[in-house]
Amino acid sequence: MGVTAVLMLPLLLLGISGLLFIYQEVSRLWSKSVVQNKVVVITDAISGLGKECARVFHTGGARLVLCGKNWERLQSLYDALISVADPSKTFTPKLVLLDLSDISCVQDVAKEVLDCYGCVDILINNASVKVKGPAHKISLELDKKIMDANYFGPIILTKALLPDMISRRTGQIVLVNNIQGKLGIPFRTAYAASKHAALGFFDCLRAEVEEYDVVVSTVSPTFIRSYHVDPGQGNWEASIWKFFFRKLTYGTHPVDVAEEVMRTVRRKKQEVCLANPIPKAAVYIRTLFPELFFAVVACGVKEKLSVPEEG
C-alpha cells in the first residue's frame, strides 16, 4: 500500500503538470484567435508596458496601430517586432505620432487610423504621465498637463473611435489605469486625481455602451516597474507606512500586465485589479474602514519625499 502511494505521487504530479501545460497552450491559441485580424490601437506603445502589449498582440496576429510621441523609439519597436515575426502570420504595424498631452492633435490621429483601416476593434488606452511632490509645490500648469495626458487625451481618443464601434455593434476599450484610481496616496495629488477621473469616466461609459455590445474594461495595476528593478532585500524600517509604500511602489512587471491585458480582451473582463495583497487590502480598508486608512497613509506625510519630478 505504501509503495503504491509512493509510486502514484510522481504520476499524479506529472498528470497535473500535463493538464496545466495543455490549459496554457489552449489559452495561448485562444488568445491568438481572439485578436487575429483585429485592428488594435495601443497608445504610448514605446513605454515598457506598451512594448509588451505590442509584442503580445502582434504575435496574436493583430493589425497593430502603435502610437507614441517619439518617432525613433517607435521605429525601434517596429524593427524589433518585425525581426522576430512570422510574415505569414502577422501584419506590418502602423506607426502614428501621438502625444496625448497635446489634446489638439488627438482627433486628427483618430481620423488617420479610421481612414487607414476603416474601423478599430480594440483600443488600449495605456498612456500615462506621473508626478510626485507636495500639492502646494505642483504648479497649476503641471496639474493641467497631467489631466490632459491621463484623462482628457484618452477620453478624446475614445470618443472619436466610439461611434464606429457603436454603429458596428462590436468593439472593446481597455483602460490601463492604476490602483490610485481607487485610493489616494500622499504626494501624488495630480496623478491620483487624473486616475480617479479616468476610472469614473470609463465606469460610466461601460453602462452606456453595453446595449451596443461594446465592452469597456479597466485594468488597474500598482506601479508598473521597469524591466530590471526588483524589490531589494534590505532591512525595512519598522513603519506601517514604509511597508505599505514599498509594497505599492514595487508594483508589477510589464510582461505580467501585458498578459493580463490580453486575458482581459479574451475573456471580455470588465474590471481587473492587478496587485499584490497589500494594495488590494488597502482598497477594501479604504471602503470599509476609511478612518483607519486615512490614519495609515497620513503617516507617510511625515516622510519627506523628493521634489516634484515628471516620470
Automatic annotation (TrEMBL):
The keyword Signal applies. GO terms for cellular component: cytoplasm; membrane. It holds the Pfam family adh_short. One of its GO terms (molecular function) is oxidoreductase activity, acting on the CH-OH group of donors, NAD or NADP as acceptor. It comes from the Eukaryota. GO terms for biological process: intracellular calcium ion homeostasis. Keywords: NAD, NADP, Oxidoreductase, Signal. Belongs to the short-chain dehydrogenases/reductases (SDR) family. This is Dehydrogenase/reductase SDR family member 7C. It comes from Bos indicus.
